[in-house]
UniProtKB/TrEMBL annotation:
Pfam family, one: Pro_dh
Protein name, as recorded: proline dehydrogenase
Cofactor(s) the record lists: FAD
Co-factor binding comment: Binds 1 FAD per subunit.
InterPro entries associated with the record: FAD-linked_oxidoreductase-like, PRODH_bac_arc, Proline_DH_dom, Proline_oxidase
Species of provenance: Streptomyces griseicoloratus
């Protein structure tokens, strides 16, 4: 049960300083976060799209304490969109955003986040692509879903993320599937109390399958966010039963994890989107990647031992 411990460490300033200072950290972080600037990430975008893959881009950073920081996050995404425009990739390169970066946790945060994210969503639509609102901890979700609904009034292709481990998600999935939305389903990567979320992997996996069936049988566009071979196989079968064509759903996986599977699925004709993060404030994102999967943590520990 190391996941909750690592998630707690992701919020510790002391652990942030310790991990950031470790000599081995940067080469390991580079596996998951391949750049800090737009200039560094553009060659990655070109390489992946040339391999037949699609991307969703995340500018990492969540510890927003001032409105000016939220505006800076907005501007970082607007810069990315401006640099994507001449590549003419359309939806092959979309964006994922966390509303906490846009000021959601500040005073008046709901209105502030909506104000800051709207120009990003509109700018993305202007270059033929879209934005997906990432899910964060359960206390933020009512605000996220309300912002998602508001944005879809003008930009209906705006997507959102739901988390299988939350009890509420089956009802959320039915609502979103009926509305024809783009929905990414993930297991969930935040430490949530037993009052609101399943705690055991088996329960989470069963919920994932139930929710995915709802999405596949609905009117929306399902995005399967998982590296689990069993769930990927189940998703393919559910899509077949629902009569979905290969372009009527997609798989999404993280940059740096199971890259061979990315290419395999794309070669089979599936839409395969790689969640690619970049930026300087990488710590929280990196620690959640370690918490999500024991293999990621083992990779980090082995690297520290081999470099020690």
């Amino acid at each position: 049960m190391l996941g909750p411990v690592i998630l707690a460490a992701s919020r510790s300033d002391k652990m942030r300083r310790l991990v950031s200072a470790a000599p081995v950290t940067k080469p390991v972080v580079d596996r998951f976060i391949p750049g800090e600037t737009v200039d560094e990430i553009l060659p990655i975008i070109r390489r992946l799209t040339e391999q037949g893959l699609e991307l969703t881009m995340d500018v990492v950073g969540e510890d927003i304490t001032k409105p000016e920081q939220a505006e800076a996050a907005r501007d970082a995404y607007l810069e990315l969109i401006d640099r994507l425009k001449p590549l003419d990739l359309g939806t092959r390169a979309e964006m994922s955003v966390k509303l906490s970066m846009f000021g959601q946790a500040l005073d008046g945060g709901h209105e502030l986040a909506l104000k800051n994210v709207r120009p990003v969503v509109e700018a993305a639509a202007e270059i033929g692509t879209t934005v997906t609102l990432d899910a964060e901890d359960h206390t933020t979700l009512d605000s996220m879903f309300a912002i998602h609904e508001e944005l879809r009034k003008d930009v209906p292709q705006t997507g959102c993320v739901i988390q299988a481990y939350l009890f509420r998600t089956e009802a959320d999935a039915r609502r979103l599937a009926d509305s024809g939305s783009r929905v990414r389903l993930v297991k969930g990567a935040y430490k949530e109390p037993a009052e609101v979320a399943y705690q055991q992997k088996q329960e989470i996996d069963k919920a994932y399958v139930r929710i995915l069936r709802t999405l596949m049988e609905g009117e929306g566009y399902p995005m399967i966010g998982s590296h689990d071979p069993r769930l990927i196989s189940i998703a393919q079968e559910l899509a077949r039963r629902a009569g979905r064509k290969l372009d009527e759903y997609e798989f999404q996986m993280l940059y740096g994890i199971r890259s061979d599977e990315h290419l395999r699925l794309a070669a089979e004709g599936h839409r395969m989107r790689v969640y690619t993060a970049y930026g300087t404030d990488w710590y929280g994102y990196f620690m959640r990647r370690l918490a999500e999967k024991p293999a990621n943590l083992r990779f980090f520990v082995r690297s520290m031992v081999s470099k020690g």
